[in-house]
Amino acid sequence: MNFENTQKLLHDAQDFHRFLSDRCACMSAEADTERLRMVLDYMQRQNEHLADALQKFEKEGGAILNNTWFQYSPENGPEVCFSQIKKLPESTSPDDLITRVIDLQECLGGFYSEAARLAPNEPVRHLFQSLHRQSVRGREELMTGVNLTP
User: Fold this and answer.
1) Residue 72: beta bridge partners?
2) Which listed residue, of 33, 66, 106, 120, carries a Cα 20 to 30 Å from 149's Cα?
């Protein structure tokens, strides 16, 4: 079992969203169609926004986030979600990346929902409920943008 404090979970998620934002920006510059470029630009902005929101949560939460710990099994942790994207080769097509990001948002949404359910106090519960809503909304918007149905 893994033990992490809330602040570390937020920091890891923030780093990951910045990584994904940079990857989308690079792919957008190389995209061969305007539609694909628009979707990748949207994904870049969305991940940058999520990273900024996580940074804000981390700064505003202070001691309560640092003193709230979670126990979870490695196969259910956020690292599983992040590794789905980080292990993709540089040669991954933009369409494959988009599909993986949609899967990632579903994975993170499940983790955030479970973290909210297990949260030992109201501020941390509210934080993870908010992250869950953002994840669901982002997934739906991305699926709409690439003409998939949620």
Assistant:
1) 2
2) 33
Q: Can you give the residue range of the structural domain that contains 128?
A: 2-145
∠ Cα 69 128 121 (to 5°): 50
Count CB-CB contacts under 10 A for residue 103.
14
Residue pLDDT, tens place only, 101-125? 888 888 888 888 988 998 888 988 9
Could you give the number of structural domains in the chain?
1
pTM (predicted TM-score): 0.78
Q: Where are the alpha helices (DSSP H) in 6-121?
A: 6-30, 34-66, 78-86, 94-118
| Domain CATH number, residue 87 | 1.20.1260
| Within a domain: 150 | no
